[in-house]
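In this supplementary section we document a worked example of the pipeline. Step one takes a protein sequence of length 623 as its only input; no multiple sequence alignment statistics are reported here. Step two produces a three-dimensional model, which step three serialises into structure tokens for compact storage. The input and output of this example are shown verbatim.
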Amino acid sequence: MANISKRDRTREKRSELAAKNRRELIAAGFKRRDLLKMGLLTSAGMLIPKSGLSARPLTSAGFVYDDTPQSRPTTPFVEEMPRLVEKPFFTSAASLTGPPPQVTPNTAAGESRTINHQILTGQPPQKYYEIHQKAFQAKSHPEFSQPSTLWGYDGIFPGPLFRAYYGEPMLVRHWNDLPPDGQNGGFGLNSTTTHLHNGHTPQESDGHPCFFNDRTHFYDHHYPNVLAGFQSTHPTLNAAGIPGDLKESMHTLWYHDHRFDYTSQNVYKGMAGMFNLFHKNGQYDGGDENSGFRLPSYPNFDVNMVFNDAVYDAQTDQLAFDLFNLDGILGDKMQVNGKVQPVFHVSPRRYRFRWLNMGPSRFYQFSILDPTNNTTKQIWQMSTDGNFLARPVKVDGVRISVAERTDVIVDFTGLAGKTFYIENRLEQTDGRGPTGKVLNPGQGTKVLKIVVDQPAVADNSVNFDTALASLPAGQPYFYGFPDTTTPIRVTRTFKFERNNGQWAVNGKFPNCLEPPRFAIKLNTAEKWIFQNNSGGWQHPIHMHFEEFQTLKINGQPPAVSGIVQAGRKDVLRLEHNMQAEVYFRFRDFKGLLPLHCHNVVHEDHAMMVLLEINDNGDLNPNP
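The serialised model returned by step three reads:
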């Protein structure tokens, strides 16, 4: 026993030393590209198996030790799950700090934007918001000895929740108040760019990874909150009283930092929040359970939940970032709205849960566990990403990769006094992606405890069991999907693969200083083929600005369920040996955009394509 204890202590010290050395490389600004040149990366893109550096060094006998550091143990379910804080707005631009917004970039006054607003005068803001990006202190669990230094929008994590409406344009001014160089606490870059994922937004406000907002500067983002097709394919008013294709409606979005090469560090440090987009006047998804689709009313029974995992230094309890941790970062602390395994109290009625996987690299398969007999409570899945399915589907669980969202209805009617858990049942052992094994009920990780102990209240929300029973077979409950009959101008193939220790798309890497790799002609349709050629890795693939419909996965139409991908989406889970065919229409705005993997560690190390929408486009089938 003494020998084992001595060996364990030796491994623990080696693990701490290796983690410390890796953190010093990160703090010094080294990226995988630099380490590759220095001979510190293997051909597989891993740190060389050297004790004192790699998370997986070899012994003299050739065996692998796992030197990944672990957080200190914590007691689950001792702290309340915070609700996201809604961001207040101004009705006048005069209330903003700094000069009035203008079409041309106001660089003389400190604005970082370099491109004119495309539609600021045509869709003038009705609401104005001001965000300050800054450092703050927070504890994710009361048993940690001290708070971590995080970065966040308005100094909170998750960032403030935006409640927006179609037909109400808005302007958000972001001030970069992050610490000076050398004061980042070991990781993170104080140059940012904020992406509204997946707003139908002009390029200058999209949050392109190469449009930087440096410290002490501001950036005005104009969000017109319009439906796709509003100035191209569907310019006339629809039933909602606004132009655009009603079937392009989105509802659950999020925003996050998107700085080229540093997205993983800045988002992991806390720079992310959610954005709920409603229809006005009680129509469709209007936030009122007495009208429209009659979904549980916002905000009391419409609940945003941000899921992420993290690892904390066991000695200091500080949030730790390991860029070189296998092939993505897997934390050992599961967090909901910034708290480790919290508790949420509900009334015995229906709730709408908006689930976001913030990452950085873990995939989830969430189910509702009844712990009394280890059974699964079925739920209604309404959406994939920000878009409703044609009609909700009753499922045992929902799988979401990084950046995916899903809206579900969970019915606690008649269940007063009971306790449930949101349980992750998807096995994943490293950053490559899940193993494919789904654990049995009660064998997964309990992420959130839900206690039905709040007072009984009226519930006027729709009961899908009865509503769908009276609906003709095949008839949508929601909008249905946009048509896919517009002729395809070009079919393009994108191979997501490994290349010299980095992730690549069609064998190439992105560069902000180079021209876009290909161009799309405005107001046309294209078919894209995504191929996973990277072996054991999985990739959540995201295209900015326009959503897609999946035509085929491995040659077959996608089934509608909580696991297989269907509907209208902005993130595709490109799983092992998968080929997917997707249909895009590109309308309304021109400009620069990215296509990238949303495992943010993969994204920061070359799995991105920079492209452009313009008047001419090209016909390159293999960009």
